Amino acid sequence: MKTHTELVHLGRDDEQFSGLVNAPVCRASTYLFPTVSALKDAQRDKQENLYYGRFGTQTVKQLQSACRALDGGHGAMIYPSGLAAIARVLGALLSPGDHILVVDTVYGPVRDFCENELKRLGVTATFYAPDDPDALAAAIRDETKVIFCESPGTMTFELQDIRRVVAIAAGRGVATVIDNTWATPYFFRPLDHGIDITVQSASKYLGGHSDVMLGVAVSNERFWPVLQKSTALYGNSVSPDDCYLALRGLRTLGVRLDRHFESTLKVARWLETRPEISVVHYPALESSPDHALWRCDFSGASGLFAIEFPVGVSDAQTEAFADGLELFGIGVSWGGFESLAIPGHFRRNGPSRVKGPVLRLHIGLEDTSDLIGDLARALEAHFPADSHSAPGYELS
Ligand SMILES: *Cc1c(COP(=O)(O)O)cnc(C)c1O
Predict the structure, then answer these.
(1) pLDDT tens digits for 217-247?
(2) What are the distances in angstroms from CA 63 to CA 122, 222, 292?
């Protein structure tokens, strides 16, 4: 089955629910059994069987099954948020005295988790450059248990050579984990490339409508028992209502992402022609230093990217530009149908590609001519033409 067909069928069990296309939201704490021995049977595999609400009702298990298949994994776990998924995965893999290598372009709250909570638990984290696999290989210690990747990285969209990371880790018996929120398994399936556990925030594209918080971790066979056990021990549980929304979002993931990709490429290409902007950070652009890597690994690109203004443009001017946009909302959690703009704040240990102020954009499902018109109007209002003299500048 091709992915668009899979997305229609995954996780569904029409027979179980008298032919309903969408299974009802199954809410439960307690399941009743006809006999004690039937309860004991269910108890043997609490994850697989319907046993107790904490381990998931039918709705939760449908989402787990769909996510497992979509990523081509051995098992999937659903968490109350993307960050909760990452925290639990790392907690499951690391013990006091261990070391983790985390990509320097990582999502800020994951950096905070590593620097605070992992540290408190006796785990040391060091941050590695996304574009230097030799340095990554050299940074592995005897105590290194996990390499954490995010590709492209938050805010600056640098890609990592995942094949090389996997090769480096495999030689040293280190587990690999990736935050695949940006691409989703629709554009990139990390487990196919040898990654051990892939995580995504389902609050973004999987939900797709800015109305649900959830996270997903999909594991290969090797790490599934560890992940499953740790998740159960911590009492993780998610709402079937939220899982219903995620399943509903999943049905249109492909058509939405195809449209996000097409529209974002159009808007990004237009932004590249603007003299007010120095760099458009989007690996799907031919001008990106990561373009060859992107073509090799990804089957598309999502709607999140960043524009960089020249050095000298102030944060206040960048903010005024964002405030001046009418069709772009100002808000953090992208992946919905709506366009967004937010100034990029990021911390890095190593040097960054980015020199000037950055604005992160999410291109939603609106008509691109309206979005480009909005961007053009705000650029002209906040970057008057006589303030620069780059060739090709035109009022469109
Ligand atoms: C939003 C996000 C997360 C966290 O997901 P939540 O569902 O908000 O907890 C993790 N990684 C990336 C790259 C994100 O953008």
Answers:
(1) 999 999 999 999 999 999 999 999 999 999 9
(2) 34, 21, 34
